[in-house]
Amino acid sequence: MPRGYSKERTNVHNLHYHFIWCPKYRKKVLTGDVAAEFESLIEEKAAELELEILELAIQPDHVHLFITGHPKLSPNKIIQQIKGYSSRVLRDEYDFGLPSLWTRSYFVSSAGEVSSQTIEAYIEAQTGQ
After folding, report:
1. Which fold has domain 14-127?
2. What's the predicted TM-score (pTM) here?
3. Cβ atoms of residues 51 and 74 within 8 Å
4. Quick one: which of 24, 74, 22 has its CA closest to 49?
5. Lowest CB count within 10 Å: 42, 67, 73, 128, which one?
6. What's the sign of the alpha-carbon dihedral 17, 20, 24, 30?
């Protein structure tokens, strides 16, 4: 099995996602105890979803999360679970003065071990084009 790939009974995969999202109105609320608890909440949810955090950077007004994926979970489902869980717990404990903790939007991009050009060349070679 090539390095970085996960093998399961019905699939082999290597999915990595880079997410970025912000608090509502980009308010700088992710500091001190809030940031520490938020990091723990992300770790809990990632473990529950059987995902591995590769890198996490919590800034006062935005978050970068680089995480492994699983074919059973869409990127939308992953971020929905993380944002929903963390918002519920943090809003119960802290008063942010916001109608919701997170904006509805987020950025996601995928990352892999090979370039798009390598994949295109491989597919062309398979089809004999």
Report:
1. Alpha-Beta Plaits (3.30.70)
2. 0.86
3. no
4. 74
5. 128
6. positive
